[in-house]
Amino acid sequence: MSLQMVSTVSNSSLLQPGFSLLNFDGHVFFFGQKGWPKRSCPTGVFLLDIKQNELKMKPAFFSKDSCYLPPLRYPALCTLRSDPRTDEYQYIIHGGKTPNNDLSDKIYFMSLVSKTSKKMTFQCIEKDLGGDVPEARYGHTINVVHSRGKSMSVLFGGRSYTPLAQRTTEKWNSVVDCLPSVFLIDFEFGCCTSYILPELQDGLSFHVSIARGDTIYILGGHSLQNNTRSPNLYKLKIDLPLGSPAVTCTILPGGISVSSAIVTQISDNEFVLVGGYHSDNQKRLACNTIVLEDSKIEIVESVSPEWTPDIKHCRIWFGCDMGKGSVLLGIPGANKQLIPDANYFYILRCKGAEEDKEEELITQICSQTSSEDPGDSTPFEDSEEFCFSAEANSFDAGDADTYNEDDEEDESETGYWITCCASCNIDINTWVPFYSTELNKPAMILCSSGAGHWVHAQCMDLSETMLLHLSEANVKYFCNKHIDLNKGLQTPQKVVCLKKSPMKPLRKKKTMKLSASTKKSFLRRLFE
C-alpha cells in the first residue's frame, strides 16, 4: 500500500463526509456535494482531475432526456451490468440526504451515453417501484445478485427520521434505525418485496456489504438503538427460481466490529477493507484483506500504510472508493487552513507498485488509441467543453473549463442568494423550490424603485399567478418596502378643468330721493 497526499484541492469545501465517487471507464466522478449546485455546474456531478498531486473538478453533463439528480449524501449505490459479457454498466443510486437534510426514497439509474475526446455525457433515469417500497433512508447498502440466470438488487439497513406520529418537539428531527428488513428489487418488473429474517435482529447502518454471485456478505455496522458496532458477519443467500425467491441468512464467525469502513476491489475475488471507527472516539487504523472463493469468505489482517501524524491524531476521517484499488481519504483541516470547511485529502493505493504501473500503461495505450480518432468529436461552447486525454489524471492545469469556486460569483452576497429584505429567509443550504418554475435557484423579480434592485418572489408573498403575470406584462413592480414610498412620490394625475364663462355682475338699481311734500301728494293720490 502507498499513501500520497493531494497537495492542492481547488474547491475542497464541496467534498464533505457522505460524498460518493463513480468510476466510468477509468475516469472518476464526484457526486454528493455540500449545498445545492451552483450555476457553474448545475448538475452537481464533477470529473476529478488529479495531476501532480493537485485535484481539480470539471463539470459533467447530462443528456436532455435526463431527470434531475439532486446532490445526495450517504446514498446506497452499486453497479449493474445489462450484459455480463460486456464492460458496459450503470450505477444504481438510492436514498441519501439532500442539502436540506431531507431524506430521499427515490431510485436513479445513471449511465454513460456518449463519450468523445472532448466530452462525456450521462443519462439519469428515475425508476418507479411498487410493492414493499423501502422508506427514505441513508447510510444503507444496495447490491446486485445473480442466480439461475436472473438478477435482482438487494437493499438493507440504513437510518431514517422518526415517524411523524412518534415525533416530539424536543426530538423532531431525531433519526432511528430502519427495520432490519431485506428488500429484493426486481427492476425488470418494477416491484419490491421485503423479507424479515430471524438472524437479523437489530437495524444496522454504515456497514459494509460485498456481493458475489448469489451471496452477499454484511460486515460491521452501527446500531443506534444499542449504540454498538456489530461484530457479526452475515451471509445472505438469494435463490431465484421460477417461483418466489428464497432468502436465507447465516451468521459466520470472524466478523469485525467497525462502522463507516471503505472497501475497494483489487482483483476479481480480493478486496481491501480500510478506515472506519471502532467506537465514536476511536478510528480504526488497521487494514484487512477479504478473499471470496466459491461460497467461502476469508478475512485476514494486512499491512497498513504509513499513516501520517495528521491522520493518526485527527478525530474524524472520511472517504470513498475510487475504483481499481484506490481510496480517496479526507481529514478536517480547519485548524491549519484559512477556509473553515477545507479538508486535507490523501489517495491510498492498495495495489502493488508493479500492478499500478502495468494498469497505468494499459490505460494509457487504450486511451491514446481512442483519442486519436476525432471523428465523433464535436465543437462546443467554451463554457461547456472539457477535455479527456490519455488518462484520468492527464489534464492541463491551465484548462479554462476547470471548475473553481474562487472564480465563481459569490452567490451569498450577489445573484440569487442575497438577503433581499429584512424578513428574507432564503438560504442556499436550506432552500427548496416553491414555485413550479423553479429548479435549482429561487425566482426573483426586479423592484423599480430608484436604480432598481432584485428581490425574491417568495419573500414578497407573490402567488404563482401574479408572478407569471408580472413576468409577462410590461409593468413596473415595487417591493413591499417601496410600494408605500412609491405611492407617496407619485405625481397626481392632471385634472382637466371645464371652462366656465364668468357671470355678469348684477347692476344696482338707482333710487330716487323724494321730498316730504312729494311723498304726501303721492300718498294722497294712491288712496283717492
TrEMBL record:
The keyword Zinc-finger applies. Belongs to the RAG2 family. Pfam families: RAG2, RAG2_PHD. GO terms for molecular function: sequence-specific DNA binding; zinc ion binding. Zn(2+) binds at residues 420, 424, 447, 453, 456, 459, 479, 482. Coiled coil: none annotated. InterPro entries: Gal_Oxase/kelch_b-propeller (IPR011043), Kelch-typ_b-propeller (IPR015915), RAG2 (IPR004321), RAG2_PHD (IPR025162), Znf_FYVE_PHD (IPR011011). It is found in: Nucleus. The gene is Rag2. It comes from the Eukaryota. It comes from Chaetops frenatus. The keyword Zinc-finger applies. Residues 415-492 form the Recombination activating protein 2 PHD domain. GO terms for cellular component: DNA recombinase complex; nucleus. PANTHER family: V D J RECOMBINATION-ACTIVATING PROTEIN 2, V(D)J RECOMBINATION-ACTIVATING PROTEIN 2. Keywords: Chromatin regulator, DNA recombination, Metal-binding, Nucleus, Zinc, Zinc-finger. This is V(D)J recombination-activating protein 2. GO terms for biological process: chromatin organization; V(D)J recombination. Its main location: nucleus.
